[in-house]
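Before surveying the methods themselves, we first show a specimen of the format, giving the amino acid sequence and backbone structure tokens:

:::
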Amino acid sequence: MAKAQVRDTAEGAVALRKVAALLGGTRVLKHEVSGQLDAHEMIVRGLPARALSHLIGELIVMEPTTSLENAIGISLRTFQRRRAMPSKPLSTEQSSRTWKFAEILSKATTIFGSQEEAEQWLERPAIGLNQRRPIDLLASSAGLELVEDHLVRLEYGVYS
């Protein structure tokens, strides 16, 4: 395997561990995430509702209402009902959006150096996103792609 591939594989494993940690790790997920295919299978089966609760509990700056509605696509009331039924898994859609939000938050944390800075970035209008707040764009797959692309540009120092 080429050195670049080994580095990419190692970086990918670290990124997966960070996402899983935001979701409660093996304690909540009941399974170690060993790769993207493994993550896919967990999402399709439905993440435990406790994973979403853990992620929301990990937020430092962001209001849970904002992140739930925009990033995950569920209301605070639905979240409260789901928390009352912790054994029932999230739907595939809810699981997918929860995982993606954790990925975005993890990636932004790596780029900005702290989760607090990452959360503040998610809530501020971004020049490279036409003055849109990244958190608002997470409501659609097209917006999600814009945010992911913008994070990659920021990572490599391309700010526009």
